Amino acid sequence: MADDISARCVLCKEGETSSRFVTNPSLDMITSIKNYAIERVKLGEQELKPLADYMASLSEAELALVRYHSSCRKTVVHKKMLERAAKRSSSPHDTTASYKVGRPSTSGGQSRIQRACTSVAPKEKVCVFSPCRYEGEEDLQMVSTDNRGKLLIDIQQKTTDDRIRTCLSSLHEPGDAHAQEKWYHSSCLQLALQTIPDERPSRSELELRRRISDVQLIMYVDSCLQKDGLISMTDVNDVYAGILRENKLDRAESHRWHLKPLILQHIPNAKFVQPPRRNESENIVLSEVVGQAVDDYLQQNADLTVDGIVKLSRYLRRELLEYRQMAVQW
User: Fold this and answer.
1) DSSP classification of residue 234
2) E strands, the chain, where?
3) Which member of 58, 91, 129, 195 has the greatest number of CB atoms within 10 A?
């Protein structure tokens, strides 16, 4: 089964005697043949139904073994043909009337594929950016992947050079470059990429966005401290990451090295309090809140005797020892 799939063209059922197979076709390119055939069958082109049914019955592993001629693929994967089929299917008039004059068309799709396979001559190897400054075919590379086709489409849409846009005007989707057997010089491709304007923001604009982000964070922390008197450093880091994302700046995993001095500089009465457990984040509180808590404790324990202080110190020492043992186990 696998040998039959890879030895014959899935479209014309011929081997490599009439034309060479497309080398190393991607699964996306093969799947596009199936999808176009299924779509055109739905629009009324029943001559492609055997092809659509056959490819739909193949598993993903078997699809990867499918081989085809480039000229055969063009007879199926063609955006204009799909659009014409859609117009014919949506038209309320009888479509047979338009075919009465002239030579009658054949009913079988396989014959059209076979004629295309034998009549289309191999294309001349010419750089897609021709005329270019480089000559010779030894340095040319063929577009054989969808990623390279996407790059050419991106150049066509963003370039400021009208000549380059004209050279790539026949490409409407990434698969077209592979189907049309486009060739290119690497140097010509790099020169074409240089015609795309740099959309990255300037250094001054990035610095302005960073300052705006810092101001937004300071306002958020100050409002939380005034309202609740407490906020964790983990929450501050998450909020700052969201602010950077909104201002289209790079997001790092942690900003504590930048946020702590920033908060201390602009909120002088802020104080960082270490949590009792090492795996917990620091808390930010107002310094007067800490002082008030100490004063309240001393006022509540004003009659504390020396014996009570000794007992309290022993208790604290025992708690610290237990905490150290737990830390060692972790």
Assistant:
1) H
2) 141-142, 183-184, 230-232, 270-273, 283-286
3) 129
For residue 60, the model assigns a pLDDT of: 84
What residues does 271 pair with on adjacent strands?
Answer: 285
- For residue 129, the model assigns a pLDDT of 86
CB contact at 8 A, 174 and 150: yes
Q: What is the DSSP letter of 175?
A: H
Length of the chain: 330
Cβ count within 10 A of residue 109: 20
0.90 exceeded by the pTM?
Answer: no
Distances (CA, A) of 53 to 37, 43, 75: 9, 15, 17
pLDDT of amino acid 99: 42
Scan for tokens 């997001």, then name that residue.
251
Instruction: Please identify which residue in the block is written with the tokens 């937004």.
Output: 216
Q: What are phi and psi of 127, to 5 degrees?
A: -60, 135
> Mean pLDDT in runs of 10 for the chain (330 residues)?
70 72 79 86 85 86 82 79 75 47 50 50 72 73 84 88 87 81 85 82 82 89 85 88 83 68 87 77 77 55 58 70 60
Domain map (residue ranges) of the chain: 2-90+113-119, 123-199, 203-302
Q: What angle (nearest 5°) sits at the alpha carbon of residue 304, between those of residues 302 and 305?
A: 140
Cα(192)–Cα(270) distance, rounded to whole angstroms? Answer: 54
Any idea which fold 203-302 has?
Answer: Arc Repressor Mutant, subunit A (1.10.10)
Question: Residue 162 is which amino acid?
Answer: D
Q: How far apart are CA 78 and CA 80, in angstroms?
A: 6
Q: CA–CA separation, 180 vs 142, rounded Å?
A: 10
Instruction: Please report the pLDDT score of residue 303 as a whole number.
Output: 55
| Cβ atoms 64, 6 nearer than 8 A | no
The pLDDT, as a whole number, for residue 100 is: 46
Measure the CA dihedral 61/63/68/73, to 10°: -150
